[in-house]
Write a structure and sequence with these properties.
The protein is mainly beta. It contains 1 helix and 18 strands. Helices cover about 5% and strands about 60% of the residues.
Length: about 290
C-alpha cells in the first residue's frame, strides 16, 4: 500500500485541479445571467493556484508546496432545445502542476491536457427584467486527460469519471445589487491505477455565494464565499482517516465589459480555514467573447 501522506496529497492536488483548470462548477458572480436563444459564448480561463503549507487534522506541514498554472476553454450555447432555456457546453483544460508533497523534500512537476467536461445548465427561472434566475448545472467529467499512474499528484488528468450537479438561485436587489447562492455536489468514480492501487473519493459538497454591485453600467465588483466539506478517501476498499476536507475561502472579483461583445474579469481568493488540504491562494483572469 502506498504511504498515507502521498495519498492525502493526491486528494488535495486532485481537488485543486478539479476546481482550477476548467472546472465550470467553480462559478463566478453573475454566471447564471441568461442571454437570448442563439447566443454563443467563448470563455478563456487563466487561473493560478499556489500554496506554501498543507493543513491536516494531525498538524501543518510548512514545507509542502503547490503551484498550478492552468488554461481552459469553455464553449456554450443558449438554446431552447430542452423545451426551456438551456446551455449545452464543453470545457477543455490544460495545466502545469508543480508540488512538494507533505513530508517530502523534493518537488515534482508535469504538464498536460486535463479531463474535459460536457453538460449544461437547465433554467427553471429566467426573468432578465428582474435579474432573477435559477438553474441546475450538470457536468460529466471524461477520464481522457493526461495521466501518469506513477506520478498522479502532478497529472493533469485524474483517471476517473466524475459528475457535478450545481443548483443556483440569483436575484437582483434594487438597482445595483445582485445576490447569488449555489449548492453543489461532486461525485467521483474509482481511479483504478493510483500507484498501482484503487483510489475512491467520497462526494464533495460546496456552498458558493456572491454579492455583487454595479459601479457603472459596464463595471461591477463582487464578494465571494466558498465553503467545502467532504471528499474522504478509500484506498483498496479501506477508509483513510483524516482525508475529509473542510475549508472556507473568501475572495473578490471585478468584471468589466470592454464593449458589447467582450468582458474581462479578475478574481483573487484566499483560504481562511483549511483542514486536510493545501492552504491555498488563487488568482484568475477570465475573458468572455459573445458570438
Amino acid at each position: 500500500m502506498p504511504p498515507f501522506r502521498p495519498v492525502l496529497t493526491a486528494l488535495a492536488a486532485s481537488l485543486l485541479l478539479a476546481s482550477q483548470p476548467g472546472h465550470a462548477a467553480d462559478t463566478n458572480a453573475r454566471d447564471f445571467f441568461s442571454a437570448p436563444v442563439g447566443t454563443s459564448l467563448g470563455v478563456l480561463y487563466l487561473p493560478v493556484t499556489w500554496a506554501d503549507s498543507f493543513h491536516s487534522a494531525s498538524g501543518n506541514d510548512d514545507h509542502a508546496r503547490l503551484n498550478v498554472e492552468a488554461v481552459a476553454w469553455r464553449q456554450l450555447w443558449f438554446s431552447d432545445v430542452c423545451g426551456t432555456l438551456c446551455t449545452p457546453q464543453f470545457i477543455i483544460p490544460a495545466a502545469h502542476i508543480k508540488t512538494t508533497l507533505p513530508g517530502s523534500q523534493t518537488s515534482q512537476q508535469d504538464s498536460g491536457i486535463g479531463d474535459p467536461q460536457v453538460g449544461g445548465t437547465l433554467f427553471f427561472i429566467n426573468q432578465p427584467d428582474q435579474r432573477e434566475y435559477s438553474g441546475l448545472l450538470t457536468l460529466i467529467t471524461l477520464p481522457v486527460g493526461s495521466y501518469d499512474a506513477q506520478h498522479p499528484d502532478v497529472s493533469a488528468g485524474a483517471n476517473r469519471w466524475g459528475a457535478t450537479f450545481l443548483y443556483n438561485y440569483t436575484r437582483g436587489l434594487g438597482k445595483n445589487w445582485v445576490l447569488e447562492a449555489s449548492l453543489e455536489a461532486q461525485f467521483y468514480g474509482n481511479n483504478d491505477n493510483y500507484l498501482g492501487s484503487s483510489l475512491k473519493q467520497q462526494p464533495l459538497y460546496r456552498l458558493q455565494a456572491f454579492a455583487s454591485y454595479d459601479f457603472t453600467p459596464a463595471t461591477y465588483g463582487a464578494l465571494r464565499l466558498y465553503h467545502t466539506r467532504g471528499g474522504a478517501l478509500r484506498l483498496n476498499g479501506q477508509d483513510l482517516s483524516d482525508t475529509r476536507q473542510n475549508s472556507t475561502q473568501l475572495g473578490v472579483e471585478l468584471g468589466h465589459w470592454l464593449d458589447k461583445q467582450d468582458q474581462l474579469l479578475l478574481m483573487l481568493a484566499r483560504n481562511v480555514h483549511t483542514t486536510n488540504s493545501y492552504d491555498s491562494s488563487q488568482a484568475m483572469l477570465r475573458l468572455v467573447h459573445v458570438f
